[in-house]
Amino acid sequence: PPILMWFRRDLRLADHAALAAACDSGRPVIPVFILDEVTETLGAAAKFRLGLSVADLSKALKAKDSRLILRRGSALKVLRKLIADTGATSVYWSRLYDPASKARDTDIKSALKADGIDAQSFAGHVLFEPWTVATKTGGFYKVFTPMWKSVRNTDVANPLPTPKTIPTPSEWPSSDDIDDWQMGAAMQRGRATLASYCTVGEGAAMDRLNSFIADRVQNYQKNRDIPAVKGTSGLSENLTYGEVSPRQCWQAGWAALHEGAADAEVFLKELVWREFAYHLAHHTPRIVSDNWKEDWDAFPWNTDERLAEVKAWKQGRTGIQFVDAAMREMYVTGVMHNRGRMIVASYLTKHLLCHWKIGLDWFADCLIDWDPCSNAMGWQWSAGSGPDATPYFRVFNPVTQLDKFDKDRAYARKWLAEPYKKPSDTASSYFDMIPASWQMRPDQDYPAPVVAADEGRKRALDAYAARGF
Ligand code: FAD
């Protein structure tokens, strides 16, 4: 009887333990993707990007004489229907660790087992299963550096090859057509422009990893902090949908390190930041929805999204160049440089004293590399309510940060039209993407800061002092 191979955030064929096990069994394999209760509620850009990835996987499977069966609805119902349609007796998938996926998968596993189905989950979305990494006293890690030290010399196994053949069933069940799903329907902004910034699918992800290792990893440490320079891998977009595995990235980085590229160690460390996000989400699931440090529950953050300052932040017109450039970069390209993410998050939560959830939700709607665990960790880290070794009262100064990391204003010019006489094409493209209701024009005066750097810092520190932190 066939095995249903349920794909989720593992949209690749290589280094895929669940798929490899299914193919090795010699039984027919029916690859399935379900637009279900978790994927249906993704943010606009993430859902659009997921659609591109599903279409690419579908093509890759076709090239192997297999198929990707697409179905829509509650995952358990769909799986049961497919089991009835095909006579499958097993369902395989790769484990996920964010609270929503975990809740769904736990229910499904027990329900299928009760039906007498062999339901099996496999590793692959992270390097280190969250329960296998523990402190000396047996607890989980709440601080990054000790976790990094404990895993940095791990002998990570080699990635698995792409299965040579994927055994097919004698009859295929029916499938939806991805075009009918309208995965980009919630996007208010130009799909073609956003798509032009996407690097989709397993093949493209592997090319991206290889070119990063060949050309950029040597200078990663210095260049990764300069937003105008293409100094990082860009792989977050692919890792989040599993178009590349963290193990493939780790092994490529490890090989570069041992061939003499010392900066590759910093890349490995960044991959472990991703692991840390998953580790925390597994052990403290509240990180995705509530203050990780509970003493922040009493802090009077603004939660009103209608506030003019919040709108200005979302629209990239706070009058603070680093913030506005980064917000516009995200709106046009679906990604934002890591330094930008830290600056805009700090500005929203500290200078503007707004709740980190406002930012978390806007990022979830705009990012093509949205990751439930990294996004939550990044926001709580920035707000001060999350796991961080640096004290919450260190407030980034977005003006001096620009002087430090964008001295010649190459990044600011790339994304801002108003302050500069001849706007760049990228800065202009922002105005083609935004809704007319925002009433922004490239020839307007650049706004004065909604909250100036020094003023906001003082306001934040006063608010912390008033709460007795
Ligand atoms: P590289 O520098 O090439 O790093 C390699 C990989 O390491 C990345 O692809 C990513 O998987 C991982 N990584 C690097 N930095 C971090 C980090 N700080 N936390 C977790 N993993 C990291 N990352 C996401 O993937 N999705 C998100 O939704 C997301 N939201 C964020 C929100 C905020 C407020 C902040 C401060 C950070 C967020 N990050 C998020 C982390 C980080 O900004 C991105 O992973 C990084 O910019 C991706 O670019 P890259 O792939 O070129 O990274």
Total number of beta strands:
5
Main sheet: strands, sense, barrel? 5 strands, parallel
Radius of gyration: 23 Å
On the 0 to 100 scale, the average pLDDT is 96
Strand order of the largest sheet: 3-2-1-4-5
Question: Would you give the CATH topology of the largest domain?
Answer: DNA Cyclobutane Dipyrimidine Photolyase, subunit A, domain 3
Structural class assignment = mainly alpha
Find the CATH superfamily of the largest domain: DNA Cyclobutane Dipyrimidine Photolyase, subunit A, domain 3
- How do the helices and strands follow one another from N- to C-terminus? EHEHEHEHEHHHHHHHHHHHHHHHHH
Helical residues, percent = 40-55%
**End-to-end separation:** 61 Å
Number of DSSP helical runs: 21
Outline = globular
Q: What CATH first level of the largest domain would be assigned?
A: Mainly Alpha
How large a portion of the residues is in β-strands, by DSSP E? 5-15%
Q: Low-confidence parts, pLDDT < 50 over ≥5 residues?
A: none
CATH A-level architecture of the largest domain: Orthogonal Bundle
* Number of self-contained structural domains: 3
Family: Belongs to the DNA photolyase family.
InterPro entries: Crypto/Photolyase_FAD-like_sf, Crypto/Photolyase_N_sf, Cryptochr/Photolyase_FAD-bd, Cryptochrome/DNA_photolyase_1, DNA_photolyase_N, Rossmann-like_a/b/a_fold
Site (Electron transfer via tryptophanyl radical): 301, 356, 379
Binding site for FAD: 220, 232-236, 267, 369-371
